[in-house]
Fold these 2 entries.
Entry 1:
Amino acid sequence: MQLLQRFRQLRYQKPLGIRLLAAILLYSSAITLIATGTQLWLDYRYELSAIDERLLQIESSSLNSLANSLWEISPAQIQVQLDGLLQLPDVRYLEITSPFNDFYVAGNKPTTDSIERHYPLEHYDAGRGSIPVGQLTLILSLDEVYSRLGDKVLVILASQGIKTFLVSIFILTLFHRLITQHLGSMATYARRLKLDHLDTPLTLKRNAKHKDDELSQVVDAMNNMRRSMLHDMSKREDAERSLAKLNTELEQRVIDRTKELKERNQELHETLATLRSTQQQLVESEKMAALGGLVAGVAHEINTPIGIGFTAASYLADQANLYQQHNPDDPLANTAVESSQLICQNLERAAQLINAFKRVSVDQSSEQCRRFDLIQYLDEVLLSLKPRLKQCKPEIVIHAPSHFIIDSYPGCYYQIFTNMILNSLIHGFEDRPGGVITIDVKPHTDRLIVDYRDNGVGIPDDWLRKVFEPFMTTKRNEGCSGLGMHIAFNLVSQLLQGHIYCLANAEGAHFRLDLPVVLNKVLPKPLKTEKKPAATQAVSVTDTSLPGNT
């Protein structure tokens, strides 16, 4: 048991030596077996040749005497001769048979491997020649041959095994003294080698005559590597110290620059916010100024010829009616009445469009900013729209607190909610009953969020961005001007200082208003334009609904 443990310990401590010993034993055993097999084959051939010589000797010396004894019919002499032949090596059985039914036996037949020979017995007579007198059967056993060969095998294997083991131990010892122990020393040195312990060089306990072999070259290479590592570590430490110093300086610079950048960034953000606010105000102011100029030009330049034309058409209609009363059968009178009525209707529509243009320009001085209850005011708006809602009869639901006081322009709220409700009637429900309009009013700190929804046909996705653009309508052929939501947008973004959005909704339209509860009273005043006196008073037809934005 201790020997097995010792072997396992050597296997893990010196695996190279164990593998070398195993290889030597394996190859030596193979060679020993081959040599032993060859020697046994040669000895076997030798034993067989000795048996053949023994058979030749028996054939040359004993066959004639046995034939004469049979011819003379001398049983005692024949038995003596057979017993004599039985004493020869490896002979185990002899048998003589004759044509005269004589039978002589010596020994026992072997049951193992054997060699059997048959020899004819003939008597020579001078007058008659050779006369057959019987047959000799000779059986030789190979047991002793195998026994001798087995003894030789044991001797050969024992001697070869002892020789192989001794040679292997000698080679292993020599290999250990010359190579393995030095490899172990190098492995131990390599395992103990660390970056902070590179001062001790590698040395091997060897004779001076072995200084130039391969192991010495490996030791020199490892020592050179150690010195190179020491040099590189020294350079790396110098570089690390320089880098640490540079990092400290850079960190301080980064801190200083970061502080400066934060200050500059804050200033830039504040400046950018101011610029964006100013830019938006300028853009809106320029838009409103241009819109005011457009309204002034359209309202005062076109209004005059439209008024003159409407006056002339009215006078023509009166004269045509008077003439038709006196001449009812005159076709010209009927044509004049129809034409004058058509002219009056189209001029009246043109007057409505002129009035719509006037409402596009947001006049901040047209109404006083005051405190009012928004919920109560919404009820008043719905009450004023009651005649218009009789045809469609939509269900209008308001989700809001019982009272909500704001400081703003109530007329703007009236016009915004009127435009959105009428748009829902005309475009969402298409003047058909069964629609539902929901108005959610939600206070949010100092802001007011209003969500307006209906369950109508909805707004296509490609119209969500252009729904607030002027003159955008899907029912222009039905008399819609496309200015209602544009006016609402201008009112929300200018006077009410808020925002209005058109949101995507799977069921109907959805508008969201983000408005302040209390307005900032410092507002830019719109551009004023001089009005030109009209030559003739134009007929003005007011259209408060201005539908047609979706």
Note: The chain is about 60% helix and 15% strand.
Entry 2:
Amino acid sequence: MPLQVGWSTATFPNIADYAFLSDCETNCLVAPSGSVEWLCLPRPDSPSVFAALLDRAGGCFRLNPFGVSVPAARRYLPGTLVLETTWQTPTGWLIVRDSLVMGPWHNIEERSRTHRRAPTDVDARHVLLRTVKCISGSVDLSVDCEPLFDYARVGPTWSYVGDGYGEVTATAPGQPALRLTSSLRIGLEGRSAVARTKMSLGDSHFVALSFSELPPPQTMAEAEDAMWRTGEYWREWLTRGTFPDHPWRTYLQSSALALKGLSYAPTGALLAAATTSLPETPRGARNWDYRFSWIRDSTFALWGLYTLGFDREANDFFYFISDVCRDNPGDLQIMYGIGGERTLTESVLDHLSGYDDASPVRVGNDAYDQRQHDVWGALLDSIYLHARSRDQMPEDLWPIVKAQVEQAAARWREPDQGMWEVRGPAQHFVSSKIMCWVALDRGARLARLHDSDATADKWQAVADEIHADILAHGVDERGVLVQRYGSTALDASLLLAPLLRFLPSDDPRIRATVLTIADELSHNGFVLRYRVDETDDGMSGEEGTFTICSFWLVSALVEIGEVDRAHALCERLLSHASPLGLYAEELDPQTGRHLGNFPQAFTHLALINAVTHVIRAREQTTAFGFTPANRAG
């Protein structure tokens, strides 16, 4: 029998108030109250162990001063994903630090069963570590760890390890084993492991939740060393990047850290987001599982990572994409599991109330078998960018290039669900046609790199045919690129037209498209994907403005020479970052509240591109980073 989990009168934190932790193999979200409210094991797309994010009775791991739930301050230690929370109580002050621990590579006796990419010197230790220090007065500390396995359907059995009170395990049939190790005395109360103590000035304690055979810290000294090493890992990683000396540098670095944290090191995959079913509309039904890797993200990921100098991460993600394409070159999906899985069947968890009563709660994503014709262009642009980064066309990629270009050439005239994955009828979406053009255009360029000139000429002829068809049927009387053939509806995906070099930036149709979207598809200055009353997306209700679209508008405004307007919009968007520098999928145009899954990789990728566009336009320099394919002539 599933545990009874339902609606609670407790309120949910704002989405933007969660902190994001990662060890590049799993991740978690920490509420301002000091409660870990989202953790899935052993992978980010596995069933949850803590799910209070989606139901206040869904399990959590809280560490905070007794009777206090609002901290004095929160921050990441600079250059890291180590969270530091400062607590003030009527009697004293505490500092808590949280991290998913990184440590030396550990598979010495045998190879890893999960790693396909080359392991680095530092890897996940599979430990959620929490340290606490009293820095003034005295404070009553409270710890309460209540894991509920399989999306809160299975409770734990707690057992002591050894003769003392310092270590306990939580188990359930068929579920990952958890071990809680602490310098505190742990007690067992029903489904929870708890600890209480009075801390005085200078006192320190640790609590470590481990979920593999790797040993967790056993002493405070070991815990402090593990926390320091984890911080050093992130600082050293960030130092490898190339960032401009500019006031917006911190936003670029926060985005880089978020993207690294959303990566899955064993395969190189990049998660679209860390969560499922955070609502696009308050208490609405537009709730989706984003814990998968979209082919569409590949181009934008490589633009962003190469631009900031993170070539290794870019290459790892590229080879994840290459792996899934090589397995089935004639049947490319729009998305895959982070291990390359093809079947991502969607289901509903009726026993969870949903974030702030937004239902249904979905796991899996049935969009995996949709027809979305932008996938070939995204892949080919990625391969082209990868080839340009090393000035050669890798021979082992040539069969993949041929298979995908021929797919785009054969099917570009067909309708599809579009890049927004509408669940209404298939349409002739203009952005999909443009991405088919990208597939043929980049394919032709790659063919010339491959010294296959005859093939290049053939593909270029098809690219020219697609280009002409779009301009004949996808432009309205105003000279604006529209959402779909036969319609005058606008679509923010057309902001990509200048970035993908479909037309020159000074073409009047590009200028008209960008300015019309800016003026007519915006709400309080932020950009909608489309207007729901003009698009049959198979869903009901409203949605917020998509932050990625607003950042696309920044880049597109720079492209058409509207640099001051772009700068003003970018400045406004950056002001809406979460307190820890993160972004969800959407912003409510009235309140600025973050909506949708969090943190959202696509948004941070668009931020990197937009900020880079504005800085380069203002400073008239490209003195930092790789110049990506979207800047090619």
Note: Residues 374 and 432 are 5 Å apart (CA to CA).
